[in-house]
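Quick question, first post here. What does this chain look like in 3D?
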Amino acid sequence: MRTTTRARANRLLTHQERGTPHVCFDATSYTPAGKGAATYTYELLGALHALDASARVTVIARESVAQQLQARLAGWVVVPKPVRSALAWHLFGLPRFVAEIAADVVHVLHETPIGRMPVPYCMSVHELPELRRRYSADDLTSLYSTISSRVTERLLPQSCCRAGHLFALSESTARDLAHLYGVPSGHISVVYPGVSRRFFQPDTEAPSEWIRRLPTPYVLTFATGDGREIPEQAIEAFGSVFHQIPHTLVVAGRCPARLCMRLQALVTRAGCQDRVAFTGYVPEAELPALYRSASVYVDLSRYEGFGLQVAEAMAAGTPTIATAIPAIAEVVGPTGYVVQAGDAQSLADQLLELLLTPESELRFSRDAFSARAATFRWETAAQKVWSTIEAMLQ
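> Answer (accepted):
Ran it through. Tokens below.
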């Protein structure tokens, strides 16, 4: 208690001496090969930095990426930390560090239990872990990850209710926070992630060797071992229509061995072994061209907090079929094609409808997809986040 009181006194004194606030961003969710929270953290920090707001800023990063972030965030202080357990760091390490640097407010860029903070904090909530578990069909995670997830489920509601403000990545997640955690709706803002400009850019160079190895034309889907994905539905639907189209089904992502064996058995049963290709890990730099070169992108998930991959494919102008879940419906809006999870026949029908439509007639859909994706802007997200931080500093 004495340490916390001293830290608060030091924070007030240094704030008066500096004349500018001290904002701390916890960016330990960023890893170079990550998606989801990692992409959000990297892109949002860049957009916040571009605002050039009047504040001292400290960013906490994992040791492996601190130099990369420092180069991106010139003028901000990036502090490397050896985060071995994200859960332990946010429960114990982060509150101590915030007291040491006398920050005025902290923004944690992903949902996590947080220990007793000496200053007000806000948090970005991508999804609710209990809903993710509820809608995950497989458990391909380690024992440590399972235990960590259950502890997070138990402690996260308290951390969300103690937060000065929460940024939900969709209206769907905002409703879940209010309904399941009891967070007052006035303490929640919906801040949609943006889509990186690189997904909107047309190809100006010859395709890379990695892209040239893909069979064309192709339908694209992902299988990464995330238990919310339903690649089985994509394979079943493709297996019923492949003889009517010239396309190959490209299954992208680092598919775990057990899942890959199960999917290959489905391919064999459908008799389309020569028309399905598994790519393995997709280099981050190849994602825009991977989406853009696809005739159709199929995104099948039982639960999402936002649906960034759907927005990225739409930005590339690729006709997209996705599952009709609330967060995805927010992304596709009136432009998208949706099917119910598990309904392979409806997916097969929509695939045929799109793939047999002349390209000239698809032009409207491609333009509409890109226009819809363009409404999700990192600049807008950064402005909303910074406005809330400024209000918390008052």
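Residues 105 and 389 are 7 Å apart (CA to CA).
The chain has 16 helices and 13 strands.
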